Amino acid sequence: MTLAWLSLALLVTALVTSLVGWRVRGSRLTAALVLLATAAASALLWRLEDRTLPETVTVPLLLVTAVLAVAGGGPLTTATFALVDGSGAPASGSVRRAADVLRGGAWIGALERTSIFVALLLGWPEGLALTLALKGLGRYPELRHQDRPGIAERFLIGTFVSVLWACACAGVVALALA
User: Fold this and answer.
1) CA neighbours within 13 Å on the CB side: how many for 24?
2) Which H, E and C letters describe the chain, residue by residue?
3) What residue numbers bound the domain in which 78 lies?
4) pTM here?
């Protein structure tokens, strides 16, 4: 039972760190800490012998992981963009300049992660496909402009990081409830 509480504490740590990450945009350290704390919590949940957790652990773990699924994706995505852009990347033609065209990405990403997390939690994987189809259709006008390099790449990178994070958080809950 102590492993479950320790897992919850690690997930709370990941959540608090990710909230800090929204203020410190592009911090690789923040993103690494979020990933490390979440991976450690997952490993502990994997090691649980008794899979019937009491509600005193299960409900907070579910709530914390749900918020982490939404909040944690932002710092991870911006840290990934910082890695992709690099410090020596030229300003013109980079993925960084594409952010000027793809407005609202943080909000869209948060809604995307919410939708994917909830769909997977409800056992409706088709919701993932529906979410990605709606996002692609909504961004199509910006993506089809060939005179603005980096837009499609930024869209794909941000979407993949966001989706993978929401799926990973749903996996943490699946481990806890298995």
Assistant:
1) 11
2) CHHHHHHHHHHHHHHHHHHHHHHCCCCHHHHHHHHHHHHHHHHHHHHCCCCCCCHHHHHHHHHHHHHHHHHCHHHHHHHHHHHHHCCCCCCCCCHHHHCCCCCCHHHHHHHHHHHHHHHHHCCCCHHHHHHHHHHHHHHHHHHCCCCCCCHHHHHHHHHHHHHHHHHHHHHHHHHHHC
3) 2-177
4) 0.85
Residue 138 pLDDT exceeds 50: yes
| Count of domains forming the chain | 1
Query: What's the pLDDT tens digit per position in 6-54?
Result: 999 999 999 999 999 888 766 889 999 999 999 999 999 998 876 678 7
